[in-house]
Amino acid sequence: MDLDTLSDRLRRGDRRALSRAITLVESSRDDHRRDAAALLERIADPDRQAMRIGLSGTPGVGKSTFIEAFGKMLTGQGHRVAVLAVDPSSARSGGSILGDKTRMPHLARDPSAFIRPSPSQTELGGVARRTREAIALCEAAGFDVVLVETVGVGQSETLVARMTDLFVLLLAPGGGDELQGVKRGIMEIADLILINKADGAMRRQAESTRADYAGALRLLRRRQGDPDGFPKALAVSAVDGVGLDLAWAEMRGLADHRRATGHWDRTRAAQNRHWFEEAVRHGLMRHLAGDPATRDRMAALGEAVAHGRAAPSAAAEEMLGRLLGTKAEGPENPEGG
Fold first, then answer.
1. Which of 29, 37, 45, 132 could pair with 163 as two cysteines, CB 3.0-4.6 Å apart?
2. CA torsion, points 230, 235, 237, 238, in degrees to nearest 10?
3. 193 Cα distance to chain centroid
4. What are phi and psi of 84, to 5 degrees?
5. In whole angstroms, what is the distance from residue 270 CA to residue 266 CA?
C-alpha cells in the first residue's frame, strides 16, 4: 500500500490501515523509517487531538481489567478509544508476550476501540520506542481518547508523562509497600491515584488506602497552575464499575482547567521539543550501529573503557570528534596492541 493510500485510509478511521501504519513506525529499517517520517508529515493535523492518558500500576493491580471496564464506559458514551499497551520485552531475547488483547476480550471486539500491544524493547520506563508516533497515528484515525499502559512502576515512568496529558497510577488496597523507594517520584508525576478493587470484602480497605494516599498527596507541592485538590486519590472498582465515571469526570475537569489556563498548550509544546531531541539522539545511535567503521571504533573504545585503558569521558570525546568531523584528543591505541 502506497503512502497516499495509507494516509487516506488512516484518516478515514480504517483500523487495518492504522495497524499497518503503527507497524511501519515501529520498524527499525532505514527505508521504513523514511516512509514513517513521510507518513507522519502527511497525517499531521492540529485539529485532531485526543486526550492522552498514561496508566501505570504495580503487577497484579488489575490494569487490564480496569482499562477494559474504563474503555467500555467511554465507548458507551460515544468516545473512540485507542489502547497502546506496552508489553515487557525480555532483556535476553527481546521477545514479548503481547497478550493484552486476550486480557481485554470485550474491548478488543468493540468497533469503537482499538488495542495495540507493542514490545517495550527493554527501553527505560517500559515505553515502546515509537509509542509517541503511534499516539499521533491514533489521533489521525479519529480516536479521541488514547490510553498508554506502561510496564510496571518506577522512577523512569516520567517518560510516559512526557507523551501524555494526564498520568494515572493504579494501586491495590493495602499495596503501599510495593512502592517503597519509588513512591515519592511516582506520586509527584501522578495526576490521579486510583485504588482499584474497591468491592466486596476489599471495599473498606480500599477506602482506607485511598485516605492514606490522599493525606500523603497533601504533603506534596501542588503543581503550578493546577486547581486545588490535585493530585487526587479515588477508590474504584473495575469489576463493579464503581467510581469509573467519577474518575473520568476528574480527568476531564483537570484537562479543561489546563486548556483554559494555557498549561495544556505549553505542555504539548514542551513535549514536542523533547521528542524532537530524542529523535535526534536515536538517529545518532542508529548511525553508530549502522556504519561498520563507526561501529568497530565504538566497540574498540568500549573495550578500552571496560578494561581501564581509557577514561569514559576521553573515549566519548574521541568518538564524538569522529562523528562530528572535529579533532578530539582520544585514547591512543585503544585496542591495547
1. 132
2. 20
3. 17
4. -105, 100
5. 6
List Cβ neighbours of 154 (8 Å cut-off, separation of 6 or more): 125, 182, 186
Please say whether the beta carbons of 71 and 83 come within 8 A: yes
Place of cell 574498540: 300
Please report, as a single letter, which amino acid is at residue 158: T
Cα(122)–Cα(104) distance, integer angstroms: 23
Q: Can you give the pLDDT at residue 212? A: 85
The percent of the chain in helix, strand and coil, each rounded to the nearest 5, is: 55, 10, 35
| Least confident stretch, 8-12, 76-80, 178-182 | 178-182
With CA atoms as reference, report the closest residue to 75 among 99, 52, 48, 108.
108
Write out the three cell numbers for 45: 493535523
pLDDT of residue 131: 86
Residue bearing the bigger pLDDT, 83 or 291: 83
> Burial of 25 by CB count in 10 Å (0-12 exposed, 13-18 middle, 19+ buried)?
buried
Alpha-carbon span 265 to 243, nearest angstrom: 29
The structure's pTM equals 0.83
Measured CA angle at 325 (ends 324, 331), to 5 deg = 90
Report residue 298 CA to chain centroid gap: 30
Give the pLDDT band (50/70/90) at residue 111.
very high
C-alpha cell at 3: 503512502
Q: What angle do CA 201, 205, 210 make, to 5 degrees?
A: 135
Residue 194 has pLDDT above 60, yes or no: yes
